[in-house]
Amino acid sequence: MTTITIIGSGNMATAIGTRAAKHGHTVELMSRNTEKAQALADQIGSRATVGTFGAKPAGDIVLLAVLYAGAVDVVEHYGEALAGKILVDITNPFNADASGVVTTPGNSVAQQIAVAAPEGAHVVKAFNTIFGGVIAEDKPVDVFFAGDSAEAKARVAAFLESLDMRALDAGALEMAHALEWAGILLVGLANNGAGFDIALGAAVL
Amino acid sequence: MTTITIIGSGNMATAIGTRAAKHGHTVELMSRNTEKAQALADQIGSRATVGTFGAKPAGDIVLLAVLYAGAVDVVEHYGEALAGKILVDITNPFNADASGVVTTPGNSVAQQIAVAAPEGAHVVKAFNTIFGGVIAEDKPVDVFFAGDSAEAKARVAAFLESLDMRALDAGALEMAHALEWAGILLVGLANNGAGFDIALGAAVL
């Protein structure tokens, strides 16, 4: 059981925070909107706390549960406060009709965050191929992740497994772009008959 | 049970042809290398036949089981012989180290094939998120597909289901690019711990 920090107070922050608390983790919430963060902390219960937006997070694992367009700004705003942290990018940089992504190969949001992050921080892409509603259901699901630091990836994988998720390593951080496209695929499947109660995964045969 | 035509005589042609024959379909093989096609037909058995490369295929569903770089050339070579056919693009346009694809959004191989194909032909992307070895094992697996013709997609979905595969519609043909990246994701997972006996899928919860 660890302390994890979630920056954000929207649907994904709610879903991941609730599931993490349910599995015994201490959750710290940080948001520009402190009232919203406090309301979410109250909703999550389990000793969830609210930190000051921009201050040093309590958790070693920091989930950036903000919209993709604001993720780099948030990391720059925190600056050195994120030194040594594991930054988990969960964003989906979809275009307007979710037919594609607004990023390009080599320039995924996760890679942009890695450039903006302070020294000693490590970025891991995860959680973007699973709907918030499915996370909230607390059922076993697969979660893909990618990153350049083996140690950071091992920490994130352990966290995922503790949430009753199967953590599947997709490779180096450059694979974050493939995961961004996997987010598009997930929405495409959901919109074309599979519905939104699905999660991408890898059947191991 | 239908007749399907496979253009190609490599690993994917072997895997899909063998599985199709096992499930009662009549398989026609076409290859520039007629000897190789004949050897594969003999191996598949089940009344598999060899057609003339470039001639009108016997099947309504024509699988382009060739390397991505040659797919458009093959379609142009066939020309009007493919009129009215359902062309199934199974290619993976990987770059040299499988860290990305050589195509760009809106210009997936499937979309390039659609431009090159004669009038009345319909392109469906499928089979590129599953390893040949897994297809050959004949176990139930998920197969994603995408295309612009509802009728062609329904025909391909029925074919997939007849092979004991669950056919999952990802949307319009523009989604083929997301599927190309899903191919990269599949290989990334395989190379980073999951092994090659896997298939991408969507858990329906």
What does this structure look like?
Two copies of one chain form a homodimer. With 205 residues, chain A is an alpha/beta fold. Chain A has a single domain (3-194), classed as NAD(P)-binding Rossmann-like Domain (Rossmann fold). Chain A contains seven helices and nine strands, in the order βαβαββαβαβαβαβαβ. Chain A has helices at residues 11-22, 34-44, 68-78, 109-116, 132-137, 150-162, 176-194, and strands at residues 3-7, 26-30, 49-50, 61-64, 86-89, 122-126, 141-147, 165-171, 198-204. An eight-stranded mixed beta sheet of chain A has the order 3-2-1-4-5-6-7-8, sandwiched between helices. In chain A, helix 1 links the parallel strand 1 and strand 2. The first copy, chain A, is globular and about 40 Å long. The two termini of chain A are 31 Å apart. The mean pLDDT of chain A is 96. Chain A binds chain B through residues 99-100, 105-106, 134, 137, 139, 141-142, 144, 146, 168-172, 174-175, 177-179, 181-182, 184-186, 188-189, 191-195, 197-205, and chain B through 99-100, 105-106, 134, 137, 139, 141-142, 144, 146, 168-172, 174-175, 177-179, 181-182, 184-186, 188-189, 191-195, 197-205. Strand 9 of chain A pairs antiparallel with strand 9 of chain B.
Looking at this protein, list some descriptive labels.
homodimer, globular, NAD(P)-bd_dom_sf (chains A, B), alpha/beta, 22% strand, eight-stranded mixed beta sheet, Rossmann fold, 205 residues
